[in-house]
Backbone:
């Protein structure tokens, strides 16, 4: 055997041994205490990561093993990874340049600390031991910004064949950023999210509305979040032993040596892995129906703990009733210290962050709102894993909608957002106001890719989508609406739907339950609201009551016309022709319930399809029409002005008198207070 | 005199309220949304109203600021007459003399008001600066916690309120000193400062009594006004009347404060 061949043989045999040992270990690891006897997902991308964090330099070194299953009939010759930390490497990155620069709250530390972040893949090899490090190159699939290094392509020596599973090993170093956006350190608090080289998603033709097989691996943008495959994670985190650690999944072991503690976690059927550490965390444990709740919070906020756990339990209970019981055995809430607040209010599998401010009054429901919102993300999109970058409304909008339902139920329809010093607002009504009263509600359609939202449009993914779904709820009977959501979740959990998949389920259930009552399908509802920018505004234009007068003039007898004096003769009964004219001022067409009230107390319910620009209802009665209300139950949350939805001929002054009197009082007291300085 | 003050206060507030009331009636009275305001604040009605007619509301609020400034100047103006009347308490109140006294003393009292406003602002600025310097310039990452920061902040605010109250007390005695002896600007400040701080126990106690009287009045008003919800025209009227009594009481306490200050001055200076 030639020397080269001999080396090759030796290399293959060494690699064979390595592979065998690895498979043995990984199999035994994954087989050890499996969370789910039957996998919940297809487990396309699984990770084993061992990292060591230097708490002084904020750098961690890590070894990563990726087991990736090619889900397609395509032969894959390259892998694409996210290196999200490189978004904070310098101010030329996609993220920071789209944000208009480095956030001031991080930049002001630049002279004293190394605020920047980076990820460097030092070594990359496949399961055969082929060194692929030199094959790594940065790519820019979205904006061709050469300074952006958040996506790499790795050309493979050995392609991954259709439906085959291959394993890759990486060594990487990463520097954590000063807490600026979702991740980073602040003092001795560390919060690591999107911290490891993470595979993009290879979407075969037909997956999530894709027409051909391709990598879906976007650069990291200012607007928009993440997208990844499901898999298992085994992560070991080594840091000084005085640190308390919280992470996705379950802790399987903890070992200490030479002042360093190694925390090992295992998570199954998840799309991400996040972890947090601080020596100051206080751990509070609770449970709900067998699900362990772990709250990591700093001592100064400990008195607020009950607000996190109670709101989480409310959400758990609500979803158990209306969707499905949360399937994982545990959930961790991380409450950053106030100086780490920029890492709060985000969601990761079985872990999320929620903010705390010392002294926050009970009447300001920030804690409950964010806790419930981030928990709902466990469903949309930790389990129903839509693409947050391309269809942000599918998770943010869905979460906002469910947040409104849960908050209003448990904290009051008019008080679930805040209730303090006589001022109050509900969650759902805040969501509506958050959309319909933006300066430019037409700035973008909801269907836009998140990175293309400009000038506040990204916020639509939350509020506009939440309002649309609430309007859908108002339009449909509750049983049908709930069945839609239950079906959508059951069908798409641990999978990757697109918006059309959700709409298809709506059409399916509505047609099944109601035939063509709502039309052939509900595309007439979704098309303008999701893909358009038009607004909705219905208006009661005017009410008219005209007394019916007897006829006068010439009838049968030409010689004896009936005198107009007949009008003055007493009529019995007196009849009125009453008319109300309704306008559609906006472009959106939605069917409306109309309530018409008469002076004698009678009320009539009518239905208008909402299509015509103007429409009228007429009556002939012995009583006058007094008032008309379009959509009295305010089911159409998309209407941007409820004030013109009703008209009454008898002015409603009491409420206005009250506020005029209040204004007068405020003014008088303000004047007296001013005089104190005179 | 208190009636005069109250009348001016009422009139100015009415002038500010009328456009607001007209706007509400014009835009909202024929909508059922107005009914939702009976129970109390309604965020949806408020937001929809502001979205449609917010520009008009802001114009009215802008005008209200002018009215606040107007009343500020009027108060300074009227203080002169009030203090002259307190000086010559035996003299029967005469509107002509009162107006003369107001006019005669206006500019001097105005300058005193500006002086003391500057002093209060300077103290506020100094306290705030010291607060920042002793709290890492607000860098929470270098402080033990936000609790630590906020508690220190609240103490700083409390200190500011305490010192401002003492400055306002000094201001009152400065006005009294000037009216009583017509001393120059500097001598007025000096003499009133010495009067206040050499007799701090007495002056502070009197001022505290006035503050407590106000707090008692405010407490009673709050308790009564919150014991019912003004949901009918009659109850709204009752609420308004209670409010007027409260304002009248506040103005009365203000005049009483000045009068008691004059008596204190006379006791200390004249013996």
Residues:
């Amino acid at each position: 055997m030639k020397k080269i061949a001999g080396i090759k043989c030796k290399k293959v045999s060494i690699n064979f041994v390595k592979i065998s040992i690895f498979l043995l270990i990984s199999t035994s690891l994954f087989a050890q205490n499996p969370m789910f006897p039957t996998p919940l997902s297809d487990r396309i991308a699984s990770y084993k990561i061992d990292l060591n964090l230097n708490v002084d330099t904020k750098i961690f070194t890590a070894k990563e093993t990726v087991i990736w299953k090619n889900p397609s009939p395509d032969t894959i010759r390259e892998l694409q990874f996210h290196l999200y930390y490189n978004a904070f490497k310098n101010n030329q990155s996609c993220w920071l340049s789209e944000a208009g620069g480095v956030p001031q709250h991080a930049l002001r530390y630049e002279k004293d600390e190394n605020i920047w972040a980076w990820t460097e893949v030092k070594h990359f090899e496949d399961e055969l031991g082929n060194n692929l490090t030199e094959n790594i190159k940065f790519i820019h699939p979205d904006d061709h910004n050469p300074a952006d290094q958040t996506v790499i392509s790795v050309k493979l020596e050995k392609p991954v064949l259709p439906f085959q599973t291959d394993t890759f090993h990486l060594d990487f170093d990463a520097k954590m950023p000063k807490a600026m956006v979702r991740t980073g350190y602040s003092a001795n608090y560390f919060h690591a999210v999107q911290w490891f080289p993470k595979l993009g998603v290879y979407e075969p033709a037909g997956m999530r509305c894709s027409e051909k097989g391709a990598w879906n691996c976007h650069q990291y943008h200012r607007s928009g979040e993440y997208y990844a495959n499901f898999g298992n994670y085994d992560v070991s985190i080594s840091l000084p032993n005085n640190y308390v650690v919280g992470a996705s999944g379950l802790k399987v072991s903890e070992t200490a040596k030479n002042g360093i503690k190694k925390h090992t976690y295992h998570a199954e059927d998840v799309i991400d892995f996040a972890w947090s550490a601080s020596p100051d965390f206080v751990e509070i444990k609770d449970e709900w129906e067998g699900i362990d709740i772990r709250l990591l919070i700093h001592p100064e906020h400990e008195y607020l703990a009950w607000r996190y756990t109670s709101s989480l339990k409310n959400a758990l209970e609500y979803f158990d009733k209306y969707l499905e019981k949360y399937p994982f055995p545990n959930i961790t809430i991380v409450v950053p210290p106030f100086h780490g607040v920029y890492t709060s209010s985000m969601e990761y599998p079985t872990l999320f962050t929620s903010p705390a401010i010392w002294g926050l009054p009970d009447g300001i429901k920030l804690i409950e709102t964010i806790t419930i919102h981030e928990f709902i993300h466990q469903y949309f999109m930790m389990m129903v894993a839509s693409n947050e970058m391309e269809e942000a409304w599918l998770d943010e909008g869905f979460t906002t909608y469910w947040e409104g339902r849960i908050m209003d139920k448990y904290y009051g329809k008019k008080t679930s957002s805040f209730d303090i010093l006589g001022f109050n607002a509900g969650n759902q009504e805040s969501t509506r106001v958050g959309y319909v009263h933006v300066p430019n509600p037409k700035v973008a359609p909801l269907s836009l890719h998140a990175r293309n939202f400009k000038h506040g449009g990204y916020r639509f993914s939350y509020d506009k989508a939440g309002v649309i779904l609430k309007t859908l709820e108002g339009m449909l009977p509750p049983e049908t609406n709930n069945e839609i959501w239950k079906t959508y979740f059951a069908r798409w959990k641990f999978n990757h739907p697109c918006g059309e998949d959700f709409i298809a389920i709506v059409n399916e259930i509505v047609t099944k339950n109601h035939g063509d009552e709502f039309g052939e399908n509900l595309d007439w509802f979704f098309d303008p609201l999701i893909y358009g920018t038009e607004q909705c505004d219905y208006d009661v234009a005017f009410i008219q009551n005209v007394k019916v007068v007897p006829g006068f003039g010439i009838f049968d007898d030409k010689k004896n016309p009936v005198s107009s004096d007949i009008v003055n003769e007493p009529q019995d009964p007196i009849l009125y022709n009453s008319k109300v004219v309704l306008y559609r001022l906006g472009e959106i067409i939605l069917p409306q319930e109309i309530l018409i009230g008469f002076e004698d107390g009678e009320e009539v319910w009518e239905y208008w399809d909402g299509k015509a620009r103007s429409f009228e209802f007429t009556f002939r009665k012995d009583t006058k029409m007094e008032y008309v209300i379009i959509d009295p139950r305010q089911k159409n949350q998309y209407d941007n002005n409820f004030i013109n939805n009703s008209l009454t001929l008898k002015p409603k002054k009491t409420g206005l008198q009250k506020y005029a009197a209040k204004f007068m009082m405020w003014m008088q007291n303000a004047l007296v207070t001013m005089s104190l300085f005179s | 005199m208190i009636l005069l003050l109250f009348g001016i206060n009422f009139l100015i507030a009415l002038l500010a309220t009328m456009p607001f009331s007209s706007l509400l009636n014009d835009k909202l009275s024929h909508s059922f949304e107005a009914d939702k305001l009976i129970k109390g604040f309604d965020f949806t009605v408020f937001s929809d109203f502001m979205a449609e007619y917010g520009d008009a509301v802001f114009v009215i609020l802008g005008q209200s600021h002018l009215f606040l400034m107007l009343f500020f100047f009027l108060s300074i103006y009227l203080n002169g007459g009030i203090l002259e009347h307190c000086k010559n308490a035996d003299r029967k109140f005469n509107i002509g003399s009162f107006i003369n006294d107001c006019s005669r003393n206006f500019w001097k009292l105005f300058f005193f008001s500006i002086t003391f406003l500057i002093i209060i602002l300077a103290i506020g600025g100094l306290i705030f600066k010291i607060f920042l310097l002793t709290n890492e310039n607000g860098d929470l990452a270098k402080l033990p916690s936000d609790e630590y920061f906020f508690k220190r902040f609240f103490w700083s605010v409390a200190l500011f309120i305490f010192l401002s109250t003492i400055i306002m007390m000094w201001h009152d005695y400065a006005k009294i000193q000037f009216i009583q002896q017509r001393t120059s600007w500097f001598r007025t400040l000096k003499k009133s400062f010495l009067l206040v701080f050499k007799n701090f126990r007495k002056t502070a106690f009197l001022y505290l009594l006035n503050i407590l009287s106000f707090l008692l009045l405010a407490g009673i008003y709050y308790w009564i006004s919150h014991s019912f919800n003004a949901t009918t025209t009659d109850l709204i009227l009752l609420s308004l009347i209670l409010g007027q009594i409260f304002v009248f009481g506040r103005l009365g306490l203000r005049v009483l404060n000045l009068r008691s200050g004059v008596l204190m001055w006379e006791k200390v200076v004249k013996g």
Residues 410 and 639 of chain A are 26 Å apart (CA to CA). Chain A touches chain B through 64 residues (CB under 8 Å). The first strand of chain A starts at residue 45 and ends at 54.
